[in-house]
Amino acid sequence: MPRKPCYPYWLEEKPQNELESLEKRFTLDCVSVSSLSSGTSKIYPKPFSVIPPYNAQKDKHAKTYFRSKGTQKIIRNSDQINGGCSINGKIADRLNETSLPAIYIKTRNKAGCGYSRETVSGHARFMSNVPPIVGWNGEFGFRRNTPDLLKHPSVFDHVTRPGTTPF
Q: Is residue 139 part of a domain?
C-alpha cells in the first residue's frame, strides 16, 4: 500500500498546463474593474460593488460548518436558511449578481479575457530566464590567460566546481 504524503494535497506540485488552466479560471481584469467601479459609482446605489462581497454559506470549503446542528439552529433563527446573504444584505447581493456590470465581469471571466501572463505569474517569473553571468575570470571562475588554458580548459574529462571531487 503506498504511503500518503505528510503534506496537504494542495501543496503538491502540479504540471504547468494544469497551473495555467487554474490561473485562467481565476481572472480579474484590473482595468475593466476600475473603469466599471468609477463609472457606476454615480448610477448604482452605495451597496453595489464591482467585486462581490463574500458569502460564507456559498463557500464550498465551509459547507461542513453550515451543516452542523448548532449552526443550522442559528441560521434558522436569523432567517438565513436559503443560502443566506453577505454582510451587505440581500439587496446588495441581488445587485452584485444581476446588474449589468456584474454580468459583464462574469462573461469576461468565463471567456478568459483580461488574462495577462505578466500580471498573473507575479513572483514565479522573477528569476525564470536569467542569462549566465560571465565575469572577469571567465565562465569557469578562474583566469585563462595562458594559451594552453585557452585551448584546453581542463585536463580532466569534465570541469568540476571548486570544492567538489569529480568522482
A: yes
pTM attached to this predicted model: 0.44
- Is residue 95 within 8 Å of 47, Cβ to Cβ? yes
- In one-letter notation, the amino acid at residue 95 is L
List the grid coordinates of 11: 501543496
Instruction: Provide the 3-class DSSP secondary structure of residue 135.
Output: strand
> Is residue 141 in a domain?
yes
Q: Residue 126 half-sphere exposure, CB side, CA atoms within 13 Å?
A: 3
> For the segment 73-97, what is each residue's pLDDT rounded down to a tens digit?
888 888 887 778 887 788 888 888 8
C-alpha to C-alpha distance for 116 and 29, rounded to whole angstroms? 9
Q: Cα-atom radius of gyration of the chain, to the nearest Å?
A: 28
Question: Does residue 137 form part of some domain?
Answer: yes
2 DSSP β-pair partners = none
| Cβ-based burial of 2 (10 A; exposed 0-12, middle 13-18, buried ≥19) | exposed
The tally of domains found in the chain comes to 1
Residue 61 or 45, more confident:
61
Any alpha helices (H) in 69-159, and if so which ranges?
Answer: 69-77, 90-98, 100-111, 117-121, 147-151
